[in-house]
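Our consortium's second objective concerns turning raw sequence data into structural hypotheses that experimental partners can test. To show how far this objective has progressed, the report includes one record in full. It was chosen at random from the queue rather than selected for favorable results. The single chain below, 382 residues long, was entered without modification.
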Amino acid sequence: MKKIGLYLLCGGLVLLLTTGCTGAGGGIGSLFKKRKPPAQDPQQGEYEEMSGAIKKVPVVVKRIKPGDLTRYTLVTGVLEGETDIAMKSQVSGTVIDVYKSLGDWVDAGVEIGRIENTDYEVQLKQARANVLSAQASYKVLELQMKATEKLYAGRNISENEYMTAQSNLQKARAAQDGAEASLQLAEKNYNNSRFLAPVSGYIAGLSLEVGETITTGASVCSIVNTKRLLVNTGVGESDIVYLHRGQKVMVRYGNTVERPGRIAGIGIKRSENTANYPLKIELDNPDRTLYPGMIVQCSIKTKTWKNVLYIPQKDLLEEYDQHYLFVVTDEGKSHKLRVVLGEKIGENVIISQGLQPGMEVVTDGAENLTEGTAVDIRITND
């Protein structure tokens, strides 16, 4: 009887399970219904239809239109004064006067200071006297020589007397020349005892102090003319063909000063030990905003292409020496467009064939595209 009861219990369980699995609305089968997939966030840019599984790739595009593209040659250099000289003492002595200060403007010939020059003044006076004496002696002997020539022609004096007269005249001439040379040296020494500015400019360094003994060759001052500045720099062979004397230049110092300049000179031979050709740029500096020694950036506009189609070089694709772009078709799909490149200007390149105005070129997201990929245009740049 126990076995019969066990069989009846098992049969009841099988019947119950079968009824639950085939039931329309209840039973155990209702506990294993399929879970719906989570709804996608529309901000992710990927849309799927459960029936078609269509996926769109988000991209950023630029609508192409003709424009102007300009080539610039950029160089860096250090500002220099148009005049920049180091003045040194030509004589020795004690400084007794200083008439100018650091930063003062001086015109050429203006006295900056002087040393004690009594000795040089005495030497100058003596040299002037020696010249006058030598000139007088030469004049007397010159007159005597004329008389001697007449006497010699009339055979009234010997040849020896005639030759002696000639020799005395030559010695007098040499003495006069020597006295004049000594005068020039005395004048130079006297003038050098007064430190006269050789050029016009600002005193950029001053070494004179009253009471100090200065020696020959010692520094007196440096003079720089900063009303006009120079930039001596260089350019490569790919740029020099676009440059010419007088061409306009924009000179910039940091983000604070911008000043127009011009090309003052171009070298026709490469500088020694470099691959660059010398280039000199000059600019006016009337308000003294710029100073020698500052590092500046110089921008030279060399050529402008009018009404051309161009794109950034970073947007190009290259395969087997061929260049392509991804553009978006009217159907909202990507198309791999072959293009022919023109001139490269900075970060941009002119497209000479293949591209048309109004096309939408993919500038971001192209790495996820193939031919015919459905796209979701997020941003359109004009």
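The partners drew two points from this record. The radius of gyration is 48 Å. The longest strand covers residues 67-88. Both points have been shared with the crystallography group to help prioritize constructs.
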